[in-house]
Write a structure and sequence with these properties.
- With about 425 residues, the protein is an alpha/beta fold.
- The protein has 3 domains: about 70 residues, MurE/MurF, N-terminal domain (Udp-n-acetylmuramoylalanyl-d-glutamate--2,6- Diaminopimelate Ligase, Chain: A, domain 1); about 200 residues, Mur-like, catalytic domain (UDP-N-acetylmuramoyl-L-alanine:D-glutamate ligase, 3-Layer(aba) Sandwich), CATH 3.40.1190.10; about 120 residues, Protein-Tyrosine Phosphatase, Chain A, CATH 3.90.190.
- Helix content is about 35%, strand content about 20%.
- It is built from 17 helices and 20 strands.
- A 7-stranded parallel beta sheet has the order 6-7-5-8-9-10-11, with helices on both faces. A 6-stranded mixed beta sheet has the order 15-16-20-17-18-19.
- Helix 3 packs parallel to helix 5 and helix 4 packs parallel to helix 11.
- The radius of gyration is 23 Å and the shape is globular.
- It is found in: Cytoplasm.
- Pathway: Cell wall biogenesis; peptidoglycan biosynthesis.
- Its EC number is 6.3.2.10.
- Pfam families: Mur_ligase (PF01225), Mur_ligase_C (PF02875), Mur_ligase_M (PF08245).
- GO terms for molecular function: UDP-N-acetylmuramoyl-tripeptide-D-alanyl-D-alanine ligase activity.
Length: about 425
């Protein structure tokens, strides 16, 4: 069946679902396959749960006339998303980067939502499945759609751009993330810059942090740029004031007091301000949106428990974000500081070196109360005062006896480490 015909059935459906456990009445179910599952096997369950149509790529899954047999379910989902994007024809703002993507996306949404009707990627649905689902959730009455794009190998951002066809874009930063898949730090820069390449090739607009020479180098010779930064030469001037612990900045002679910690969040806030300015959002609305935004889902959250301040940043980690979090902790005022650091994943052959670098920095800048968790950190060479644990289970018995009164605690690690579990035991 042609995409145009499937699209008509999509328009008549309630929404899209890829999980039979979450189907609502009238949904269109896409029977996706993975390494350990085959959605074709759950078609009967999908109809019983209320699905109106099921998209399948196994002829044995066709159990009634409401099953649509295609060559490949995932490709059909992606093609349908692109067809929908063309049909609704709303401005799309896309962003990628090594760190801060989701926070930046939420900040941009908060700013624009003060003046426009806006929708954005839910959570971190930012891959080859998440981006199509995001696009298919957008409606033609929106003023803007914001699409977050994640990647862990070359050509992935290029592929996602082909689906989303963004009108505007930005890269939060280039960091040491997914080094294994990208083939090193230069590979990260090349891979993430595929967003710039698409925007440049299609004469679309780029928002760029002029304080980041790596980004300026990648977009060299392109004229359709809107810069933001700390100096008066920028299209949008956002002055950094302080970060102790929350980021404070100034825009249009008005101070903005965010609820985000760490100077590394300056760029994330500044681009949201720049996009707000570009689309003529009033300064007071920009200020209100930034100051009202609260981080959640284990991303740079500050949790106060009596006299203990906990910085929970356990959603993910890579060498760049880990170092930034440690530098931020170093400059904070606190009687005592505790560090719980978990392994950083997807570093490939660089894993040993990068974990040792973090361990060295930690010991050079903090005297005590250092706890390293995970197989990679366990292999590092450290002082006797640094406590290392192969797993979270090995760490657990120690947590119940710690006295954290009048202290600041940093919890950071990759998603697979799930270090937020520490909170239950402190």
């Amino acid at each position: 069946m042609e995409i145009a015909s499937i699209y008509k059935k999509f328009e008549a459906s309630a929404s899209i679902s890829t999980d039979t456990r979450k189907i609502s009445k009238g949904d269109m179910y896409f029977a996706l396959k993975g390494d350990n599952f085959d959605g074709n096997k759950f078609v009967k369950q999908a109809f019983e749960s209320g699905a109106k149509h099921c998209i399948v790529d196994d002829k044995n899954a066709v159990i009634n006339d409401n099953c649509i047999l295609v060559d490949d379910v995932l490709t059909t989902l992606q093609n349908l998303a692109n067809y929908h994007r063309k049909t609704i024809n709303i401005p799309i703002i896309s962003l990628t980067g090594s760190n801060g993507k989701t926070t930046t996306k939420e900040l941009i949404k908060a700013v624009l939502s003060t003046s426009y009707k806006v929708d954005a990627t839910k959570g971190n649905l930012n891959n080859h499945i998440g981006v199509p689902l995001t696009l298919l959730s957008f409606t033609k009455d929106l003023d803007f759609g914001i699409v977050e794009m994640g990647a862990n190998h070359q050509k992935e951002i290029e592929f996602l751009c082909g689906i989303a066809e963004p009108n505007f874009g930005l890269i939060t930063n280039f960091g040491k993330a997914h080094l294994e898949g990208f083939g090193g730090e230069e590979g990260v820069i090349k891979g993430k810059s595929e967003l710039y390449d698409y925007l440049k090739a299609n004469e679309k607009t780029v928002f760029i942090n002029s304080d980041d020479p790596k980004q300026l180098k990648q977009i060299n010779s392109y004229h359709n740029i809107k810069t933001f930064g700390k100096t008066k030469e920028n299209d949008c001037i956002v002055e950094f004031k302080s970060a102790n612990p929350y980021v404070n900045l100034s825009y249009n002679n008005i101070d903005i007091h965010s609820q985000l910690i760490g100077d590394y969040n300056y760029g994330n806030i500044a681009v949201a301000v720049a996009i707000g300015q570009y689309f003529e959002v009033k300064t007071e609305n920009i200020k209100k949106a930034i100051e009202s935004y609260q981080p959640n889902n284990n991303r740079s959250e500050i949790i106060n428990r009596h006299t203990t301040k906990i910085i929970l940043d356990a959603y993910n980690a890579n060498p760049t974000s880990m170092l930034a979090a440690l530098k931020n902790l170093k400059q904070l005022n606190a009687d005592r500081k505790y560090l719980f650091l978990g392994d950083m994943f997807e570093l490939g052959k660089e894993a040993e070196k990068e974990h040792q670098t973090i361990a060295n920095f930690t010991e050079d800048n903090f005297d005590e109360n250092i706890f390293l968790v995970g197989e990679n950190f366990y292999k590092t060479t450290t002082k006797s005062t640094t406590k290392k644990f192969k797993s979270f289970e090995d760490l657990k018995p120690l947590l119940k006896n710690l006295d954290l009164k009048n202290s600041t605690v940093l919890i950071k690690g990759s998603r697979g480490m799930a270090l937020e579990r520490i909170l239950e035991l402190l």
